[in-house]
Structures are given as C-alpha cells and as structure tokens.
Amino acid sequence: AWLPIDPADLDPLDALTAAFALGALAIGIARRKRLAWTMAVVAFAAAGVAGALTFSHPIGAPVAIVCLLLLARNRVRYRAATARAGRTAFAWIAICALSLLVVDSAVGDFLSGTWQQPLSDLRALIGSIADALSFSAFDGLFGPSGALSRTGLIGPDLGGQVFDLLELAARVGLLLATISVLAAVSERPPDEHVVRRARRVGRRYGKGALLPFQLGPDVRQFLLPGQAGVVAYGQAGRMAVALGDPMGRPEAAWETFAAFVASRGEMDQIAAVYQASGTSRGMLAALGFRSIRVGMEAIVDLKLFRLEGSRRANLRHTVSRASRGGVLVGWYPDGVRGKSARPIREGMKAVDRTWLSRAGAQLRFTIHGFDPEELARRDIAVAVAREADKDGGWVLDLIRRAPECTPGALESCIVEAAERLRDSGVPTLSLGLAPLYGLDAGAASREERFLAMIGRLVRPFYDVTGLAFFKSKFDPYWEPRYAAVRGRFDLLRLGVALLRLHLAGSGAGPLDAIGAALRAARSSMPLSPWPGR
Questions:
Q1: Is residue 497 part of a domain?
Q2: I need a labelling partner for 234 at 20 to 30 A (CA). Which of 209, 258, 259, 355 fits?
Q3: Each residue's pLDDT tens digit, 183-197
Q4: Residue 301 · residue 428 · CB < 8 Å
C-alpha cells in the first residue's frame, strides 16, 4: 500500500497532490527524462525505507526493491535532459519542501515532548522524509502516531491549521518540483557559422523543390563537425520536424540525420519528417521510422512543356481567355527594380495586403512571404519562382491575385515563367505539394486511410481537390511525398506541429499559433495557398 499512495490515508489533499505528482513523474518516465528516472529511483528507494521502518505493509518494501532494480537495469534508456531553468527550479523547490518537513517534524516533536528521545525523533524524521519522497502518507504528521495527534493539535485551533498548511506546502512543493522536471531543453539561437556551412552544403548537394525552404529563414539547420550533411528542421513545441530528405553526400547525410534524431531525444524532443521522398523510405525504416503518404508533388517537365495538344487544352483556353480580357504578363528575371518600376511595386504591395486581409495569415515554413525586392510580376497577379536544386530545377514559391482580377491571370503568369525558364535551359518546374491529394481510402496503411478521411473532412476549409485540379492544368507528373514518424501517436503530434509551423513559424509559442489560427478562421477565404505545401 506504500506504492504509490497509501489508500488508508484519508486526507484528500494528500491524495490529490500525491496523485498529480505521480502523474507528472509517470509522464517524465514515459518521455525518458534522466531527472525523472532519478526521482523514480529515489521514490522507490524511499518507499522501501518507509516500508522497512513501519513493517505495516510487508509487501511494499520488496515491490519497491524490484521496481528499483528494473529502473537501474534500464537506466541507459533515459537520456532526455531537462532545461537548465527546470533543473534549478527542481533543486530549490525540493530543498524548500524537505526543509518544511524537517521544521514541521522538529516543532511537532518539541511540542509533544519527545525531543529528548533523539533516536526516536531521527527515526520519525527519516520516516516522514521517506513518506514524502515516495509520495505516501505523512505518518510523522497525520495518523494515530503523528505529531498532530500527539500534541492534540488536530482540530480547528490555530496550531493544527499551521501544521496542516506546512504539510500541504511540502506536498505542493514536491508536486511543483516534479512538474519542473518536464521542462524541455530550449533551442539555442541560430549560429551564423552553421547557417553558412549549411548553405554551402545545400548549394553543392541539395536537390528538389524544398531546397529554398531548407536553406530559408524559417527553419534551422543541424550539422555534424567535419561532415558534408545537413538536416533542415522546424521546431514546434516538443516536435522537431525535418523538412524533406537530409542534404549532402548520401553517407554523410544519413549519418547526420541519425545524429539529429539522437540529439532530439536527448533534448526531450520528438523527431519526425515532412515531405520525405520515396527513395528515402528505406533509410527511414532502418532508423525506426514509419512512412505515410501525405500528398503528391506536381512537377512540370519543361523540355516537353507546350500549350499545343489536348493534354493542356484547358490551360490553353484559360490563358487565351485571360489575354482577351486584357491581361498583360511582364517578365522580370532580376526583380522589379528602379524608379520606373515603383508603381508596379506599389501595386504588388496592395495585392498582397488585400490577399492577407482575406486569408488572415501568411503561411510559413514551406512557403515564403511577400518581398517586393524579389517578386517578378505586375499588380493584377503575381507569381514567384525560385531556383530549387543543383540540377537546375525551379519551384513555384508564391502567387497572389487581386479578387477582381481577370480569370486566368495566375495561369498566364505561370505559363510565361515556364516558357521563359524552358528557353533558358531549366529542366523542371515544381508546382509544389498538393497536400492530402492522391491518398487511397482503401490503403493497407491505417494512417493513410485516416489522412484520406481528413482530406474529405477539411474541404470546407482547405480545398484539396481544387488545389490539385489547378496544378493538373499544367499536365505535370506526380511524385508521392511522405511523413515519417516513430511513435504510435506521433502522426497526430506531427499534424499539430505542422499547423503551428505554417501559421506561426519555427520556434513560435502556442499562443502565437493560436492567434494566427484565429485570424485565419475569421478570413473570408479558405486556408489554402495555391502553390500548396
């Protein structure tokens, strides 16, 4: 009955505080926190001591010893650290709580007249501390032999209330100390040297439509000293979401990724991957990850891109209608610069303001924001493409349009960019991911079936089918993209983390993400960026 709470204890405050503390300790053990493991060892050791001292529950001490041996055997599994502030808070609060017990027992012994029996007093003090550390009943304070009973202070008198408050303060202190163990290690500020190294590796080895975002300002980069490998990731709460495949030489890239996963565990974070390629599934499986398809990326082969023919007839008619409506497309490969271009820049800013007023939130992580110095179209519709990888491919990054613009203006911008890029020798143009598109509702994977159901449920808020239809006008070829997780519930955690990353960015607090979500919910248009990430 000493493990974990004495059911004979009739004090509800004792029971509640001990239960909450044990719950926090169980969470820490589940998260493999080193400090939680230490607390559990102390708790079971204290329970064994308490059982041995009282002999009231002879089964308690052997059970405590068995649990203690099991914890000691598996100690290498508990590597997750606690934040420095959490460790400091734990130490001070625990010291204060135990000091309260010492003071409480000493005062109780003095008032009861037993202070002249030091061995008995020491035994009672050790029993009280053991009870506290094992989250059991305080026999030194309550119960038939407790200090309050011996002094006759139980009741409505002032002395009894003081003892009650001291005991409760000690309980609450131990509860707060246990909760402080759960504090995750914070990310360090980005190191400029690391960022420069990551960009060098990315420019040399990076490939795919995610490269501009893997090296962008909304992610962090993880590297190993002396290794040509980079993992780009975003951090949301305890989730560390790697963006795409690791960059670098294959051996170095995956060695860096394995080190990244291990380091996240030591920081009490959960590693996951978003938009992994099909070729990386084998390596991810070897590292204990399960891959779940989350959508399809649309890629246009520019060498074959022509408006003629039946395959792009819909696109051809859309562009022709826009041309008849007076749409003129300007091509600015170096950006809209100079005094003469000021009206165009101002017009683009107005388009962006209008779009944000309707969308409610500028998405991040895999979508860049509006920058007039980089944009390359005029004010009725804007589309931006960026160089994507070392093989010369480009990716459609951001598009905007005014609500009243002529239908087909966006398609005209993208067609003009595709033709210009094709003529300059660019092999491919990625239109980005169509999230939740192409999932099989009858797939063998229950996770994919679940995501397919989510895709149907979110249609009022995120137009999955409409986004895929828009991209299919350009007759792309489609490549599957995957999420990779390790734990049973990590897919749900990843979904929440992706919302936070796209709404508020990497490292933002939960309140920032909630605020961005509320702004998006009040908007007059679905939360769906046309490029789709």
A1: no
A2: 355
A3: 888 777 778 888 899
A4: yes
Residue 213: which of 421, 358, 365, 372 has the closest Cα? 365
Structure tokens, 329:
């497309």
In a domain, 372, yes or no: no
- The structure tokens listed for 296 are 């399809």
Note the residue count of the chain.
533
Could you report the per-residue pLDDT of 258-291, keeping only the tens digit for each?
A: 999 999 999 999 999 999 999 999 999 999 999 9
Q: What is the pLDDT of residues 357-369, one digit of tens each?
A: 776 667 778 777 7
Domain count for the chain, please give it: 1
Which pLDDT belongs to residue 234? Answer: 93
Dihedral sign (CA 181, 183, 187, 189):
negative
- CB-count burial class (<10 Å; 0-12, 13-18, 19+) for 390: middle
What is the pLDDT confidence band of residue 150, given thresholds at 50, 70 and 90? very low
- The three-class DSSP label of residue 497 is helix
Q: Which residue in this structure is represented by tokens 């962008």?
A: 216
Instruction: Give the C-alpha distances (Å, rounded to integers) separating 262 from 211, 255, 266, 272, 288.
Output: 24, 11, 6, 12, 12
7 assigned to some structural domain: no
pTM of the model: 0.79
How many other β-carbons are positioned within 10 Å of the β-carbon of residue 149? 15
With 60 as the cut, is the pLDDT of residue 144 above it? no
Task: State the residue range of the domain holding 128.
Answer: 12-180
Burial 102-133 (b: 16+ CB within 10 A, else e): eebbebbbebbebeeeeeebeebbbbbbbbbb
